[in-house]
């Protein structure tokens, strides 16, 4: 079901939701309290979300910080992402950039599959990148020389033109305001090879676009397709992803 802002923010909806999901009340209240503090202290969204990740990694776990309640679900989610890329032709010789790589839920499988040096992962969170280093060690991927980078924006200034066959962002734009999505669209075409593609997932709504506590953002497909076109990019809704047991939708971007 697609939730609208009206439904989520109406008192009646929230009371009904709380009655149906009493176990969600405490986590929501603690997210709400964190939002109040961060809203007053964080200068921008990246600083805000970096702090969200810091508290989730240190107070919960790296698995939970990227949205997987257990290690088993972390493994399942990563496999889903990886198998989709494989079914769309990912080869060991390809160069892959993962935006918002987290603790390498899919990344470790991609690194294992690619030739050494062909994986680049970036993230705004130092805490989750430290957990990514641990994942490299856990899966003994040192010889694959994965490149993991801390960033403060999505302008990719340190990366070369026409370089990546695949750019991948899973469950990142679901936590990103539209101006940062646009920043990414404005620059991703430069680093993509002419025959490359950029796949990202997003929380899709067919009604009013909205955000919840600055952590979860819901967009209409047309908004993202039109924004991509503004930057000379072709955007295609990936219907074959919809059959997966994952609640987000996927769009593929190519350079026109
Ligand atoms: C839900 S986690 C998903 C991580 C990984 N893609 C996965 O599937 O496991 C979202 C990740 O995106 C990162 N992130 C959020 N906003 C970002 C941004 N503007 N630029 C780069 N990374 C970002 C977060 O720090 C976090 O690691």
UniProtKB/TrEMBL annotation:
Protein's UniProt keywords contain Amino-acid biosynthesis: no
Protein name: Class I SAM-dependent methyltransferase
Keyword Ribosomal protein: no
Entry similarity comment: Belongs to the CFA/CMAS family.
SUPFAM superfamilies: S-adenosyl-L-methionine-dependent methyltransferases
InterPro entries in UniProt: CFA/CMAS, Methyltransf_12, SAM-dependent_MTases_sf
Alphabetic keyword roster: Lipid metabolism, Methyltransferase, S-adenosyl-L-methionine, Transferase
Coiled coil: none
Molecular function GO labels: methyltransferase activity
Swiss-Prot/TrEMBL GO biological process terms: methylation
Domain Methyltransferase type: 97-198
Domain of life: Bacteria
Pfam families per record: Methyltransf_12
């Amino acid at each position: 079901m697609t939730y609208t802002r009206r439904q989520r923010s109406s008192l009646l909806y929230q009371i009904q939701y709380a009655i149906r999901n009493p176990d969600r009340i405490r986590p929501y209240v603690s997210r709400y309290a964190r939002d109040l503090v961060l809203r007053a202290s964080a200068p921008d969204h990246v600083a805000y979300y970096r702090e969200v990740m810091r508290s989730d990694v240190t107070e919960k776990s790296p698995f939970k910080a990227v949205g997987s309640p257990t290690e088993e679900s972390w493994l399942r989610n990563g496999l889903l992402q990886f198998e989709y890329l494989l079914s769309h032709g990912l080869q060991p010789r390809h160069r892959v950039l993962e935006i918002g790589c987290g603790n390498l839920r899919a990344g470790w499988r991609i690194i294992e599959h690619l030739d050494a040096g062909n994986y680049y992962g970036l993230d705004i969170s130092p805490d989750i990148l430290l957990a990514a280093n641990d994942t490299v060690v856990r899966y003994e991927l040192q010889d694959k020389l994965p490149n993991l980078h801390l960033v403060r924006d999505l302008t990719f200034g340190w990366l070369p033109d026409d370089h990546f066959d695949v750019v991948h962002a899973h469950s990142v734009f679901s936590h990103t305001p539209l101006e940062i999505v646009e920043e990414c669209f404005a620059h991703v075409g430069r680093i993509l090879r002419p025959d490359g593609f950029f796949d990202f997932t997003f929380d899709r709504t067919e009604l009013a676009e909205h955000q919840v506590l600055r952590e979860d953002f819901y967009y209409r497909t047309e908004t993202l397709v039109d924004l991509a076109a503004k930057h000379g990019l072709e955007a295609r809704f990936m219907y074959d992803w919809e059959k997966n047991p994952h609640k987000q939708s996927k769009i593929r971007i190519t350079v026109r």
